[in-house]
Amino acid sequence: MIPEIVGFVTRREGRKFNSLNAVDDSLVNAERLAKRDDISLYVHIPFCRSLCPFCCFNRYLFKEDLARRYFIDLKQELETYRGLGFGFRDVYFGGGTPTVLMDELGDLIQQLRRQFRVKQISLETTPRELSAQNIKLLKEYGINRLSIGVQSFDEQVLKAMGRVNGPAEEVKSRLLTCQGQFDTLNVDLLFNFPGQTTVQFATDVKAFKELGIDQATFYPLMASPHKKDDLERRFNRVDNSREKRFYKIILKELYHGDYTPSTAWCFSRGERMIDEYIIESDDYIGIGAGSVSIVGGNFYVNSFSLGHYHELIASGRLPIVGWRGLSDKENRRYYLLTKLFGLKLDKEAFRRRFGGDIGAQLRLEMAFFKSFGLVAGDDILRVTEKGMYPVSVMMREFFGALNALREYHIERQI
């Protein structure tokens, strides 16, 4: 019952992010943007060599001419933010597949390091991209955390997902080639896909543990409305009532194993870098088509259309097409959500950011989480084992709401 309650509230709050205001020139010229020189940067590369039917992110089939133009636009958007006084510390490349053009990726990373005090870089890719040459180049580019979108080691499940990873043993061999080459090697695995059994998922978790890889991030299926309909037509019903059975496997094998939870979805061997910039940074900028940003209590959305994104960049503007100012309560609840997802909340940090005690400003929320034993602690609140799955549900519902926003913008090419 508790997961259903927190899921309902989070879904309701997340849908508020879909109500955006139109953008005018004064906004795009950054009158509202609170300039920061120490925040995180997310860089979206929307190109893939094949498109997975369950993925809700903004992505396009790879075409070299479009991709090269896109990298030029990214550099210009980055330069615009630098001109506005922004500085970036931690950088996260996502997609899509950021490694589709390694020369362009290398040039962009060089620009980042030349213009900003970059501390660490996390980058996503797929098993197909793990050639010896690419691994060598990624090390030269100074990638600290490499995340591989495996999703499953079961070839039957992968076929249903529409993934083209190659034979399972070959994928494992490529992963082992990367192990020890970066500060953190992460594997992404998906659970609760229609038709996927708990036995298949347990086998995936076992395979990950046997490989001895630094870290795994387990994502529940988070289909947008139309994606959900498509999946159910092609496979089986998207059934969230099964989800807890999958999550119990994660807790049994990793939470009570040799791995430490870094988030409600991510489990690491020792201290490792994670890619959840929404946890690490209270504010962040997203660049690229379909990226979102949160700065100074405002939520910004970039154009999802490659053509419109290019036109806005060429005109010298930021490619923001919508924004929403969060109310004080929404801002505090979003902060609570992200910190709980990261499994700890520092009361003093909350006080510094919001000018008051969390127990007073989020009285009902704190009473709920404490009374049901979902969090424990005094100055530092930590999510308990009992709270792990409810927090996972909260983040799944929030991202599900954002996926509906993505779907709306993608379908209309806004």
Main attributes of the structure:
single chain, 414 residues, alpha/beta, Arc Repressor Mutant, subunit A, pyruvate-formate lyase- activating enzyme, nine-stranded mixed sheet, globular
Describe this structure in words.
This protein has 414 residues and is of the alpha/beta class. The chain has two domains: 1-23 and 328-409, Arc Repressor Mutant, subunit A; 24-279, Alpha-Beta Horseshoe (pyruvate-formate lyase- activating enzyme). The protein is built from 17 helices and 17 strands. A hairpin with a 4-residue loop joins strand 9 (260-261) and strand 10. Helix 1 (2-15) packs parallel to helix 17 and helix 8 runs parallel beside helix 10 (243-255). The two termini are 38 Å apart.
Provide a short characterization of the protein structure.
The protein has 414 residues and is α/β, with parallel strands linked by helices.
Total DSSP helices: 17
What summary fits the major beta sheet?
Answer: 9 strands, mixed
What fold name stands as the CATH topology of the largest domain? pyruvate-formate lyase- activating enzyme
Radius of gyration from the alpha-carbon trace, in angstroms: 21 Å
The proportion of residues forming helix, as a percent range, comes to: 40-55%
Strand residues, percent: 15-25%
